[in-house]
Design brief:
This protein is α/β, with parallel strands linked by helices and 243 residues long. It has helices at residues 5-9, 13-18, 24-38, 55-62, 74-80, 120-133, 147-152, 202-211; strands spanning 45-49, 66-71, 88-92, 104-109, 134-145, 157-162, 165-174, 177-186, 189-198, 214-220, 235-242. It contains eight helices and eleven strands.
Length: 243
C-alpha cells in the first residue's frame, strides 16, 4: 500500500524543525481552559489522539490525569515515550483503528490533527473509533482550524528560515483541500514534502459526527473558548457527546 504524505512528513526531523516555534504556553492555555470547562474528575482517563510529541498529553498528566497518547509517527512517539509515567503512556497507532472500548472519559483531537485522509469514509471511521473508545457519558473534543478564515487569508508564498534551513512554502486550495508544498535544501540535497488537509466546515463536521453517532453540544472559536464566528474565529473547537 502506498504511503501517504503524513506518514512521510510527520516522521521527518524537518517537520519538527519547521514547526519548532510552536509554543507550549499556547497548548497549556487550551488545556487549562478545557479542564475548567469540562471539569474532569481526578480519576478521569484521557486519550490524546494524534498526540505528536505529546505536549498536550504531558501537561494533562502533570495536572494529575491518567493519559494515553496515540500517533502514527514512530519518531514522535519514540520522543514522547521518554516522558512516560505510571499514568502516562504513548503508542504508535492509526486513529482509524479502534484501540480501546468504552474506556476513556475524554478523547481529545487537537491542533488540526484531523482531515488528513482522502475519503469521508476514512474520517467517519476515525470518528467512530473515537466514539467507541469513550465511556457512555464520555466527551470528544475536536480542535480544527477555521477553514473559512484560513482560505480567506491564505498567503500563497512564504519563506521561513529555521536552524539555518530556508523553507519555501506555497499554499493553495484544490480538490476541497488546503495544500501546502514545502521545499528546501539541506546539506546540498533538495527535499520536497506536502501537507494536504481537508477544508472541512462546521456543516461537514455536523454531517460526519451524525454518521458516527456523535452530537455537538458546544462550539468555540479560540483557545480562550470564545464564541465561534465563522468569519473571525481562528479555531473551530467542538465538544461532542455520544448520541
Amino acid at each position: 500500500m502506498q504511503r501517504k504524505w503524513f506518514q512521510y512528513w510527520f516522521n521527518s526531523p524537518y517537520y519538527h524543525i519547521l514547526y519548532s516555534q510552536r509554543n507550549d504556553a499556547e497548548a497549556e492555555f487550551l488545556i487549562d481552559n478545557l479542564s475548567a470547562y469540562l471539569k474532569p474528575a481526578a480519576e478521569s482517563r484521557i486519550l490524546d489522539i494524534a498526540c505528536g510529541r505529546g505536549r498536550h498529553a504531558i501537561y494533562l498528566n502533570k495536572k494529575g490525569y491518567d493519559v494515553t497518547g496515540i500517533d502514527l509517527s514512530e519518531q514522535s512517539i519514540k520522543y514522547a515515550q521518554q516522558f512516560e509515567t505510571k499514568r502516562l503512556h504513548f503508542y504508535v497507532h492509526d486513529m482509524r483503528r479502534l484501540c480501546f472500548i468504552n474506556y476513556f472519559d475524554i478523547a481529545l483531537n487537537l491542533f488540526t490533527s484531523f482531515g488528513y485522509f482522502d475519503s469521508e469514509k476514512d474520517h467517519v471511521n476515525a470518528l467512530k473509533s473515537f466514539r467507541k473508545g469513550l465511556k457512555a457519558d464520555g466527551t470528544l473534543v475536536i480542535d480544527y482550524f477555521n477553514t473559512l478564515k484560513i482560505v480567506k487569508n491564505l498567503t500563497s508564498q512564504e519563506t521561513k528560515t529555521v536552524e539555518g534551513i530556508e523553507f519555501h512554502l506555497s499554499k493553495f486550495v484544490a480538490d476541497g483541500k488546503i495544500i501546502k508544498h514545502i521545499n528546501f535544501e539541506h546539506r546540498d540535497k533538495p527535499f520536497a514534502f506536502e501537507e494536504r488537509v481537508q477544508a472541512f466546515l462546521l456543516t461537514d463536521f455536523e454531517r460526519m459526527l451524525e454518521k458516527s453517532g456523535l452530537q455537538i453540544t458546544a462550539k468555540f472559536g479560540s483557545y480562550g473558548l470564545e464564541e465561534f464566528d465563522e468569519n473571525k474565529s481562528d479555531r473551530l473547537i467542538l465538544i461532542c457527546k455520544k448520541v
